[in-house]
């Protein structure tokens, strides 16, 4: 243990000495080198994030957790602390701001998603009930729901006659994601539902949707989704980006399930874990954007 501690501090001191020498040779600090030598997207933002967090300056360390409204002032503070002339380096401030918007936005997105996950479905809440009924109408537009408590809910993959009990694990987050999928990607959602009812590939659509919500949630909280969001969100990633990612994961898992050709639903955990590992492997690529059709705007290219 003592040797490991000594080695850690030795490497840390060596790294800082190396950074000092490189700055003297290039005339640029680490933040400048990253922005000028790395193209916009996850590769740049993650390097900026690591540099700020690893700085010996408390002001730089805390810059990744400021309020979005304080980002402009934070950029000014960074420029001043690093003794960078903004008139000589005007593009640096723009690049740093874009990175900080993504970094701070990701932290705020986790908080927003966590709040939805912790809020339980309440059948006495009209908004909750309205969302649940909207899910049915989007998935089964030609089949009216005969009653709020009904075995019909099993037709879209709930376990019993009242779906509220199925949302316990993921709270409102599971419902939000299912409704978003059914409302904004209706054709795909209806096709996935139809396929899930086929005897050969049978699974419970809604329950799997809540399970994939759990997968997406864990990818987000672990930081694995930074690669994706920093590549597709030109500024702060939002709940909509998260829901779009859920739609992608839901569709991809459905295809993966069919390709795996499981014997029955008892193989679900095995298939899910294999799918999870595949997504994690993809996200290790700093160029990865899980949903290409939700790519960042052209504005990002010039930052």
Automatic annotation (TrEMBL):
Residues 127-283 form the ELMO domain. Pfam families: ELMO_CED12 (PF04727). GO terms for molecular function: GTPase activator activity. This is ELMO domain-containing protein 1. It comes from Phaethon lepturus (White-tailed tropicbird). The lineage of its organism: Eukaryota, Metazoa, Chordata, Craniata, Vertebrata.
